[in-house]
Design a protein that fits this description.
There is one protein chain. By secondary structure, the protein is mainly α. The protein has one domain. The chain has helices at 2-12, 14-44, 48-75, 82-92, 102-113, 119-148, 150-155, 157-169, 172-185, 197-226, 233-249, 259-267, 274-327, 331-335. Helix 3 crosses helix 4 (82-92), helix 6 runs antiparallel to helix 8 (157-169) and helix 10 crosses helix 11.
C-alpha cells in the first residue's frame, strides 16, 4: 500500500514526521476555522455549561469507542496495554481529516506494528470495529427514531430493514467467514483467530455506551437551543447515530464533514427548525473535532513518554553490560590454562 510506504518513511525521518503532523493539524484547524463563524454565533446564544457538558460527553464517547477497538484487537490475539492502545488509535484517527480514508488506515497499521501487531490482524480489527460501530449505530438509530415518531419510521425505513441483516453479519461464524473470504480475495492468508461471541458482545457494549454519550452530547446542545427536555433525548441519540453513519459512508469528505451535518439537521427536524438544528450540528462538529485533537494529544504525549522510557531502559542495559565487562576478566584469558 502506497500510504503505508509513505508512513514508514515518516517514522524514520523526524523532519517528514513533523511535516506530516503539521499537515494533519492544518486540516483539523481548517475544519474548525471553516465552521467557526457559524459556531461563534451559535455559541453566543448558548449557556457555557451545556457546551462544557457536551464536550465532556464527546471525549468520553470517543474513549468508549477506543475501548471497543482495543477489545476486538485483543479478541483477535493482540492485547495491548491501555497506553499503547490510546497511542495507536487516537493518533491514527487524525488521518481521517485528510481527504480519503486510506491515511487513517495506514497510520493505524504503522503505529500498531510498533507493538508487534501483525498488519493483517490490525486491518481485520479495524474493519470489524467499523462494522460493529456502524451496526450498533444503525440499530440504535432505527429503534430510537422509530420510537420518536411514525414519520421518522417512514423516513428511515431502510435503517430498520438493514438492522436484522447487520446483526446476522455480526454473528461470529458468519463474520469470521466473511473476513476470511475478503482476505482470500486480497490474496492474504486467513486469520489465525476468528472473532468470538464474548469479544464481539463486549465491544458492542462499549460501542453502545459510546453512542449514548455522543447522543447525549447532541441532546445537551439541542436542549439548550430549543428549551426541550428529556423528551428529545431519544431523538438526539438516534439522529446523531444516523448522521455519523452517513458521514462515515461518504469517505471522500475529510472526517465526514458536510454529510454528517446535513443528515443531523434532517434527522432533528421533528424537534427543531433548521436554525436551531444548524446550531447543534455546527457546535457538535467543533466539539467532536476538539475531542479528536484532545485524544490525539494524549496519544502523542504517551508516545513521547514510551520512547523516553525505552531510551532510558536501553541506556541502563548498556551501562550494566559495560560494568559487567569491566568486572569480569577477558573470557579468552579466563579460559586459557595456567602455566605450570
Amino acid at each position: 500500500m502506497y500510504a503505508c510506504r509513505v508512513l514508514h518513511r515518516l517514522r524514520t525521518s523526524p523532519w517528514l514526521r513533523a511535516g506530516f503532523v503539521a499537515v494533519v493539524a492544518a486540516f483539523c484547524i481548517y475544519g474548525l476555522v471553516a465552521e467557526w463563524p457559524d459556531a461563534e454565533a451559535a455559541i453566543d446564544g448558548l449557556d457555557w455549561y451545556p457546551v462544557v457538558g457536551a464536550g465532556l460527553a464527546a471525549v468520553a464517547g470517543s474513549g468508549c469507542m477506543l475501548l471497543a477497538w482495543r477489545t476486538l484487537l485483543a479478541d483477535l490475539g493482540s492485547p495491548l496495554p491501555m497506553r499503547a492502545a490510546t497511542r495507536v488509535m487516537s493518533v491514527s484517527q487524525l488521518g481521517k481529516y485528510l481527504p480519503g480514508a486510506v491515511w487513517a488506515v495506514a497510520a493505524q497499521l504503522e503505529l500498531a506494528s510498533d507493538y508487534q501487531v501483525p498488519r493483517r490482524r490490525c486491518a481485520a480489527t479495524l474493519v470489524t470495529s467499523l462494522a460493529v460501530t456502524l451496526s450498533v449505530g444503525l440499530v440504535m438509530a432505527s429503534v430510537a427514531l422509530s420510537l420518536t415518531s411514525s414519520a421518522a419510521a417512514e423516513d428511515y425505513w431502510w435503517a430498520l430493514a438493514l438492522a436484522p441483516l447487520i446483526l446476522i453479519g455480526l454473528f461470529p461464524p458468519v463474520l469470521g467467514r466473511i473476513m476470511n473470504c475478503v482476505l482470500t480475495l486480497a490474496r492474504r492468508p486467513p486469520l489465525e483467530r476468528r472473532p468470538t461471541g464474548p469479544g464481539l458482545a463486549k465491544a458492542a457494549a462499549w460501542t453502545a455506551l459510546g453512542w449514548l454519550l455522543w447522543g447525549a452530547q447532541a441532546w445537551l446542545l439541542l436542549r439548550d437551543v430549543t428549551g426541550k427536555g428529556f423528551n428529545v433525548l431519544l431523538l438526539s441519540v438516534g439522529a446523531y447515530a444516523l448522521a455519523w453513519s452517513a458521514g462515515t459512508v461518504v469517505v471522500i469528505f475529510p472526517g465526514g464533514i458536510g454529510p454528517r451535518e446535513l443528515a443531523l439537521i434532517a434527522a432533528l427536524a421533528p424537534a427543531a427548525p433548521r436554525g436551531p438544528a444548524l446550531v447543534v450540528a455546527v457546535v457538535s462538529r467543533v466539539l467532536m473535532t476538539g475531542s479528536d485533537l484532545a485524544w490525539a494529544g494524549a496519544g502523542l504525549v504517551i508516545g513521547r513518554l514510551l520512547t523516553r522510557s525505552l531510551a532510558q531502559a536501553q541506556h541502563i542495559d548498556a551501562h550494566l553490560a559495560s560494568r559487567d565487562r569491566l568486572a569480569d576478566p577477558d573470557p579468552v584469558l579466563r579460559a586459557a590454562p595456567l602455566p605450570d
